Amino acid sequence: MTPIKTLLLCGYACGLALAVVGCEEAKQVAEPPRPVRTVIAKPAAIGEEVAQTGEIQANVETNLGFRIDGRVATRTAEVGMNVVKGQVLATLDPSDVQNEVLTAEAEVKSAEAAEGLARAELDRQRTLFKKQFVARARVEEAEANWRAANAKLNVAKTGLQTARNKLTYTELRAPDDAVVSAVAVNAGQVVDAGQPAITLSSTHERDAVFNVSERIYTTVPLDVQVEVALVSDPTIKVIGPIRDASPTADPVTRTYRVRIALPGAPDAMTLGATVTGRIILPGKSLIVLPASALTSENGKPAVFVVQPASQELVRKPVVVARHTATQTLIESGLNEGDAVVTAGVSKLRPGQKVTYDAAEVTK
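^ Efflux RND transporter periplasmic adaptor subunit, sequence as received from the core. Prediction below:
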C-alpha cells in the first residue's frame, strides 16, 4: 500500500471515530422530558377572613350627676364596684335643703290655718244668710276669701312636695344594676347641677367594640354576623350582629368604630376584656394554588405552566391577592384550565420538556 493510501485510510478512520464520539456526546446531552406534578387552574369565589382586635364595653354607659348644686358630703362608689338598682353612690350636704323643707312645712301649716279660718267664716255667713241676718254679698265675699285661702294652701303643699323632692336629690342613686366605670367627684367638692360625677356601665347588655379600616368598613354588609372570641380563651365565643357603626372616621386614626352586639354573652366576657372578631369579606374570583407553585421572574411572582401542545414549560407572571400558610391565591395572570406546576419549580426553566400523568392532575 502506498504511503498516500495509508494516509487517507488513517484520516478516514479518525474522522469516523470523531463522528462516533460526537454522536455519543449528543446522546448524552439530550435531556429526557422531566416528570412534574401539576394542578389545573380553576377560578372560584373565595371570601377573605378578616380578624380584628377589640374590647368588651357596656351597651349603655350613663353619666350620673346631682340634680341640684351643693357640696359633696360622702362618696361610696369606687371604680370597678358592682352596684345594684337604688344603691346610694354619693350624697350632698342636706342642711340647706332640710331648712327649705322646714320652711315649706311651716308655710303649709300657716296656709291650713288660714284656709280653716276662711272656711269657718264662710259657714258662719251662710248660716246668717239663711236666717236673713246678712246680705248675699257677704256670703259671696266669704266664698271668695275661702277660695283664695284654699289656693294658697294648695300652693304651700306643692312647695312642700318640691322641697321634699329636692331633699332626695341630695342622694345620688344607681338607676340600675351596673359597674362603676369612672368617678369624677370627691367628698368636700362643690358641684353644679348636672355636673358628671359617676359613670355607670350597665351589666345587662355588652358589646364588642372595634376600630376598623375604611376597606373593611365599606366592604362589610350591615347584616353580617361576627364571631367574637376572648383572646385569653378562644373557646369562649359569641356570634352577634352589628349594633351600630360610626358614620365618620376618627380624625387621628382614620378608623371607624363598630359595635357588635353580644346576645347572651357569658360572664367571662367581662367589661374591658380583649376579644378578636372574625368575619368573611365578600369573595371575588381567585385561583388557589399550593404555596410551592410560586416562583419569580425579575423579582415578581410567577408560576410555570405546561403548554399542552408542545409539553414545554412557560413561566407566567401572576398577581397574588394574598397568601395563607399553605396556599397562594392568584388574582390574575392565569387562565382557567392552565396546568400549573406545583413542585420543584426552583429546578425548572422555561422551554423545558415535561410530562405529567393526567390521572394525577387535581382540580
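Helices lie at 3-29, 95-130, 136-168, 214-219.
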